């Protein structure tokens, strides 16, 4: 069985080397040393867990956290030198799953990683058979179908992934590049037509002629799921 993949986003080379050496027996550990590269790597090839430092070049850790959370629920464990509890609470509310204050104990770090991976596995198992209902739309994970009122439509794998992401964040506008990267796990370059076809297929299935438009494109901004099907709601 393959090892869980850990991505470390940390600009301290000595700490990167130490984390790789300490964790490599149990996890497959790689690292990047700036926030911009961290975002690209996380979205293009999502790891099983991210260890994220806050003080990063180019894009800081807080911005990485907020950007990733727009499209991904990958577990993120923050490393911080900040002692301010209010700051820590803000990080958790922004989407961090856990945190450790520097300096930290390596055994405790490994234990916290295991906890987050167990939680993710348990959540994934539950989600396999869960139904997501938003407004008049129900997404059925077990059957790979979407139900609109009393009508049910089968979904292709990527159609399902797109709709799950949009319905999981109703009203939120996803730039098409972010939406494509989150679903296909690769850069958007060259993927415009592919995404357009899948969105068109979804609209045909759930948008209603002369009625509610649940999947909406906002010119120059991106795509969103509107639970009521009404513009601006």
Automatic annotation (TrEMBL):
User: Which residue range or ranges hold the OmpR/PhoB-type domain?
Assistant: 129-227
**Which residues constitute the signal peptide according to the record?**
none
What keywords were assigned to this record? DNA-binding, Phosphoprotein, Transcription, Transcription regulation, Two-component regulatory system
Entries under InterPro entries matching the protein: CheY-like_superfamily, OmpR/PhoB-type_DNA-bd, Sig_transdc_resp-reg_C-effctor, Sig_transdc_resp-reg_receiver, WalR-like, WH-like_DNA-bd_sf
Query: Which domain of life does the protein's organism represent?
Result: Bacteria
Q: Which Pfam families match?
A: Response_reg, Trans_reg_C
Q: Where's the Response regulatory domain?
A: 5-117
> SUPFAM superfamilies per the record?
C-terminal effector domain of the bipartite response regulators, CheY-like
Q: What PROSITE patterns does the record point to?
A: OMPR_PHOB, RESPONSE_REGULATORY
Does the UniProt entry include the keyword Transcription regulation?
yes
Locate the 4-aspartylphosphate modifications and list their residues. 53
DNA-binding region boundaries: 129-227
Query: This chain belongs to which protein, by name?
Result: Response regulator transcription factor
